[in-house]
Amino acid sequence: MFQVFLQSPPAGVLEERCFRSGVFSARSVPVFMMYNGQVRVGSGGLDMNLHFGGRDIGARTLEIVTEMKALEGALLPILHEVQAEFGYVPQEALPVIARELNLSRAEVHGVVTFYHDYRDHPTGRHVLKLCRAEACQSMGGAALEEKVKKLLGIDFHQTTLDGGVTLEPVYCLGLCSTAPAAMLDGEVHGRLDDAAIADLIAEVRL
Ligand code: FES
């Protein structure tokens, strides 16, 4: 018999929607919330199968790896494709990638955490990336960051409680001449000030 409980409600979890499927870490729980996935519990822990709208992460990852593993330097494009598929790089994908590429799981994990573009957690419906590189910092980027964090009530790498917005740092968007800059859902915005960033956030929170 599998006992079900939440140890604590982590950031990004809507209590009223959580179906409390098991004992998971704070980082795992939003997976079930934001993708409305189903959980089939196996022998426990990381060996369980997670389903995203009917897709099995392990099986789909294997398909991706099989298609791409002949590429030179296959790891990065595979991780990119896995993230495109699921919106992030799920923990459950790592052992599959490691096994198929003859790497250790730690090596794959190291690459995922080294590159800022790879996420190890799901995002909200909108992704706001704030530039933290030098030009933007010199043009008020730090103050803008504080403003955004206050408006959203979250820090970098977090998602608002309603699952609406994920805030991420980025290191140069190529808009240095119009700093400070940000990217919202893939669209870049420059010369941001308090009013402009507040307008952007209001747009996605309607
Ligand atoms: S430093 Fe921010 S866009 Fe280049």
Q: What report would you give on this structure?
A:
The chain has 206 residues and is of the alpha+beta class. The protein folds into two domains: 15-114, no CATH class; 126-204, Glutaredoxin (3-Layer(aba) Sandwich), CATH 3.40.30. It has eight helices and eight strands. The chain has a five-stranded mixed β-sheet, covered by helices on one side. A three-stranded antiparallel β-sheet has the order 1-2-3. A hairpin with a 2-residue loop joins strand 7 and strand 8 (187-189). Helix 2 (57-68) runs parallel beside helix 4 (93-101), helix 4 packs across helix 5 (105-114) and helix 7 (141-152) packs parallel to helix 8. The longest helix is centred in the N-terminal third of the chain and has 12 residues, at 57-68. The chain is elongated, with a radius of gyration of 19 Å. Bound molecules: FE2/S2 (inorganic) cluster.
How many domains? The number is 2
Overall outline: elongated
- Return the average pLDDT rounded to an integer: 79
Distance between the termini: 43 Å
Question: How helical, in percent, are the residues?
Answer: 25-40%
Give the uncertain stretches in residue-range form.
1-49
Number of helical segments with 4 or more residues: 8
What is the strand content?
A: 5-15%
Lateral arrangement of strands in the main beta sheet: 5-6-4-7-8
Structural class by sheet pairing and helices: alpha+beta
Largest sheet: 5 strands, mixed
Give Rg in angstroms.
19 Å
SSE succession:
HEEEHHHHEHHEEEEH
Kindly state the number of beta strands.
8
Bound molecules: FE2/S2 (inorganic) cluster
